[in-house]
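Exam review. A common question shows you a sequence with its structure tokens and asks you to describe the fold in words. Practice with the pair below. Do the first one on your own.
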Amino acid sequence: MKRITALTVIAIAVTVLLTTCEFEIGMSNRTPAAGDFTVSYLGQSWTGQPRRVIITPKSGKSEGEITIYYEGTQGTVYAKSTAAPANVGFYTVTFDVAAASGWNAAEGLNGGTLMVKMMIPIARDFEIAGRTHTYDGAPKSVTVTAAQGRSQGVIMVYYEGAQGTVYTKSADAPIERGAYRVTFDVAAWQTWGAASGLNGGTMRIQDPDDSVTVTSITANYQGGLVYEDTTLDDLKTGLTVTATYINGSSAPVSDYELSEPAPLTAGIRTINVTYSGQAATFTVHVSEAGTYAVFTPAAWVDTLQAISGGGSNIEYTINVTSDITIPSSSNDTDPTFGDATGIEVTITGSGTLTVDSAGAGAADAARVLVINANQTVIVGETGSPTGPTLQFINNSTATNNVVVNVRNGGTFELRSGKITGGYSIGNVVVGGVSVSGSFIMSGGEISGNRGGGVGGVYVNNGSFTMNGGVISGNTGSSGGVRVTGGTSFTMNGGVISGNTATSSSGAGGVWNNGTFRMTGGIIYGEDGDTYNPKGAPNTSDNNPDPSDALRVTGTAEYGSFDAGGNWQGTRLDSTDDTIRVENGVLVAP
């Protein structure tokens, strides 16, 4: 029998003590730093409401409670406070992070500078009257009036010869017959900045005979949202009526009359216009409560402003009834529906929302929709054969145009309609839909998009569930869908086909580096080929080919869910021209 002496026992105890100390030292807490967090919304426009920034921890960093402080800087007087400022100015942002598991607390971390900017007037903020005059030897001028709620800054109007009329730009009203280009400047006022060179249209001074006999008139409405309580006079803000005279000339007129129907009721309504014995009509889409009928660019802008400032936990419906060109969300920190939280916005109709990459005010990193945290946006209606189209055009100079960006845990659902025309370059960018949240596709089409990383759908941080619809005709390093590590793609139905991979390491259909589960649907490669995972999941493609239907570097399974909601799956293995799953069973095409 072996003896254990007292000296041996002491040695063992010392060893255990040292090991325990080393373990405790190795497990010491870390202290958060400012670079561990993402700070959003440091640049905002004045609205009269508090302007808050959002601070979120990066992956793997402290989840401790964050307290944000604002303090005036660069001449702005604002005592340090957790209350977000509302006034125009500059504010130093700092924040504290409470202790959390494995992390110490931290105070006074630098969050940058919040800038609340003045709003800048635009031409449509003003009503312009008096563009047509009869020559009588006296100076003729237009009247520019600010709409309610817009800048009341001092207005200076200028006239310059146009269409062959010689007249040097001047603030003096012209006298002689001819056409005159009208521009105007607006001085700064309260929370509004100054603006110069705003377009006021064309003023005409005509011979008496030119304005005697009107042969026809036209009416073009490009105003904002129309509600059931809108009056006929309200419609004049966005209406242009043009008269054509017996001598062939034409000019806008202002002293026309509107009639029927009054009051306006929800639906498409025809308005009658009369001027100098001639008649014309135009239609407006009247919105009922909770629904926005969008048929002009101005109506789209009004809708976004109404939803952004409408509060939280509200459901909205936007009915896109026409094909319109809209301004883009200029970057990923400019959500389409602002900071509103808990909202659900459903976009219906058969119209098209187009962002023109070559149009006025176009910017790189443009988006048709940016969906923020705690926002749900639904496009189309379940079972509908048609729906809204969201698209980019004129992408020759674009480098980062994504049609829909789901960010910070937002939710996007495509039920019908089409997403097309996205164009981005770079290894990780996408043309169609970028997902850092939740994306559910039950119908519709994602096609004609091009991305450096993937053409159709890029699941970067979140989940993608495909219950129906078609992903086709997209081009990128991977053509159809790319799923990164730590994310998931569940395919219960639909078709992925005819997509093009430009990289030998990509896949025409799906490149999965996360978790891919398939209970139904069809995946075709670029040329009808497929990728064979060669056995169990978690294997890499030994011979990647851009025509592959599926490339797996993560987990791929097919099967079904049992009655208890538990996954009953097995390996995904196909050497056919198609990967097809019917009722949880992999079969040949």
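Now try the second one, then compare your answer with the model answer below.
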Amino acid sequence: MIELVYDGTAATEIRKEFPDVKIEDASDFIHEGRIQVELPDEKRDAFYKHAMKEGYYEVCLGFKLMMMSGEAKDKEYIHRLLAELKAEKTVSDTSSEKGRT
């Protein structure tokens, strides 16, 4: 999976979550601070869920194109990721509440 991220400061957050990531400077004379993120395809879902949790999904070109796409498969993919994130949050919230009692 290759993604262009239009905020080079996201590299630190990405490296923390994905130590095996390959990040290259993809800046040009128009887009400064752009990075190219390369991960194995099987980490695609995890990458986009992390981008949504941390807020840098808006500067991911591939993700943005999927959001603008009219194709059902892209919408289904994004809805699935959102549902998984919501389920993970619910499990996390439930675990936190159990620890307080």
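Model answer, second protein: The CA atoms of residues 3 and 13 lie 15 Å apart. The chain has one domain: 2-100. Full marks require stating both points clearly.
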